[in-house]
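# nightly structure sweep
# worker-07 picked up a monomer target from the shared queue
# config: single-sequence mode, recycle default, output format = structure tokens
# input follows
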Amino acid sequence: MGSSPGSILLFDAASSANRFIDDFIWVYILLIFIYVLSSWVRLPYSPWLRRIQDFLRDVCEPYLALFRRILPSFGPLDLSPVVAVIVLIILKTAVDAIFDSV
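# output follows
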């Protein structure tokens, strides 16, 4: 008794979607990590470095701003990247559980 071609195609699509979401979340976590590290280090001026920093700011700031509004201020310590990464990992776990049940 074999599986129908339609169910194999559906399983393949669900597996591909799950893999895409997992990879997207890991890349976004990596971008947040690089953004935080680049904010700690003063880099020499270079047009290419400036473009990379602008890209990281444009990609990461809107998501981190959500948590900065909620979290209280601890002086110079910004906990929003930590909370944002934890939320992304919880989201990844939830998405994996949803796709595993399908």
